[in-house]
Design a protein that fits this description.
single chain, alpha/beta, two-stranded antiparallel ribbon, 31% helix, globular
Length: 239
């Protein structure tokens, strides 16, 4: 008996990963700025909402209103789900503003943050969670070892406390293989999807690569995709 799968919400992606993301795990969506990470996350959340699930979106770099605007620009109305209390978009900036004033940076308390998040998730009965992007929550001034400890804490706490299926986004740094900003190590998450832009015959195309999916036979092919109004990310069929 295979693990239950959760639809990604991306047309054409589920069949490539045996039906969707393995339920109850955390997945990394990585790529340079502007590659479509937030759109991917919105689609994932929307798919759940349309199937009657509830969701929590933690907006770390942007304000919740920016997420709503980005969704609206693609023809999706997230506001009605917020009004129905099916979707909660959390503004994570208060976590950081307290760090700024004192001159010495106070680290985000990862365990407390996940604890707070878990209480929202449980109260709502949410099934899907997005943290976009995850880097600022785990970046540590001390050392990469410390940041890694934070990632480990984060990924384990999400899994142990919530039972949700989670997307964590992270910036990849151009030209550095496997480097997610803030060292979101791929071995800690159950899967990683890389969004990129490649040059094909003098034009730029958007690409999606499933680099890792635990318990899933994957084909390491870069799939081209378009971003289409009302549909979002749509994979092109492989010729």
């Amino acid at each position: 008996m295979g693990k239950k799968r959760v639809s990604t919400g991306i047309p054409g992606l589920d069949p490539l990963i045996e039906g969707g993301f393995p339920q109850g795990k955390s997945f990394l969506i990585t790529g340079e700025a502007g590659t479509g990470k937030t759109i991917f996350c919105i689609q994932f959340i929307l798919k759940g909402l349309l199937e009657g699930e509830k969701a929590v979106y933690v907006a770390v770099d942007e304000k919740p209103s920016d997420i709503l605007e980005e969704a609206a620009s693609l023809g999706w109305d997230l506001l009605k789900f917020i009004e129905q209390k099916d979707l909660l978009i959390l503004d994570a900036s208060p976590l950081f503003s307290s760090r700024m004033g004192s001159g010495k940076e106070k680290e985000v308390d990862v365990q407390k943050t996940v604890g707070d998040l878990a209480s929202y998730v449980k109260r709502m009965g949410a099934a899907r969670v997005v943290i976009d992007p995850v880097g600022p929550l785990i970046l540590s001034r001390d050392s990469s070892a410390r940041a890694q400890e934070h990632v480990r804490t984060l990924v384990h706490s999400l899994q142990d406390n919530m039972g949700t299926t989670n997307l964590l986004t992270s910036y990849s740094i151009p030209g550095v293989a496997g480097a997610g900003e803030g060292g979101v190590e791929e071995f800690l998450v159950a899967g990683a999807v890389i969004l990129g832009v490649a040059r094909v015959q003098n034009r730029l195309v958007r690409t999606l690569l499933v680099r890792k999916m635990r318990g899933t036979a994957i084909d390491l092919t870069e799939h081209q995709f378009n971003i289409v109004k009302e549909k979002g990310i749509v994979l092109k069929p492989v010729l």
